[in-house]
Amino acid sequence: MNKPSLRAAVGVAALVGAVALAGCNPTLRTHGYRYSDGEVPEFTPGEDNEATVLAALGNPSTRGVFEQDTWYYITSTREYLAYLRPDTRARRIIAVRFEDDGTVASVDEYGLEDGRVIALVDRETPTRGRELTILEQLLGNVGRLPSEQFSGEQNLPGGAGGPRPDGGP
User: Fold this and answer.
1) At 119, is the secondary structure helix, strand, or coil?
2) Is 80 a domain residue?
3) Is the keyword Thylakoid in the record (predicted)?
4) Under a CB-based contact definition with an 8 Å cutoff, are residues 89 and 78 in contact?
């Protein structure tokens, strides 16, 4: 090989290696509530109310489903690496509970270590019959004629009970 083609081959190999390494570089993304200075303001139970929490933290990420008097501020940091499933690196949840009069009852903080892994059941309910292929579904009714063309009866919704539109039996 001469020197220009050797240099070109080395340059192409270096470019391919750089692209491959860039694809393996992890990307961190933060989702949810973003803390302005990294810390949550202190709230005094019994003194602070919904208005002071809204002024300090803004709208909550979500509210309690069954307890509407609980506000949750959620943030999570996920790491994305090439084609792999994202991995949650950090999670912080601030739960602010209010009394009936709107004052702060308690402020709790939860982290990633407080979470629980839930195993989802991936079962299917079996149905009667057989599964048709796409071709069978597309061509299944080709050549079949509706039976009411030959019998003279109409197919009424809900069965045959009830008056007929033409006044027949």
Assistant:
1) coil
2) yes
3) no
4) yes
| Burial tier of 77 (Cβ tally within 10 Å: 0-12, 13-18, 19+) | middle
- For residues 151 and 169, what is the distance between their CA atoms, to the nearest angstrom? 15
**Which tens digits make up the pLDDT trace of 43-64?**
888 889 999 988 888 888 888 8
The pair of structure tokens assigned to 83 is 């084609």
Overall pTM surpassing 0.90 (yes/no) = no
Q: Among 6-10, 16-20, 77-81, 162-166, name the one with the lowest average pLDDT.
A: 162-166
Residue 36 within a domain:
no
Total domain count, the chain:
1
Q: Where are the alpha helices (DSSP H) in the chain?
A: 3-23, 50-57, 134-139, 148-151
At residue 98 the predicted structure's pLDDT band, cuts being 50, 70 and 90, is: very high
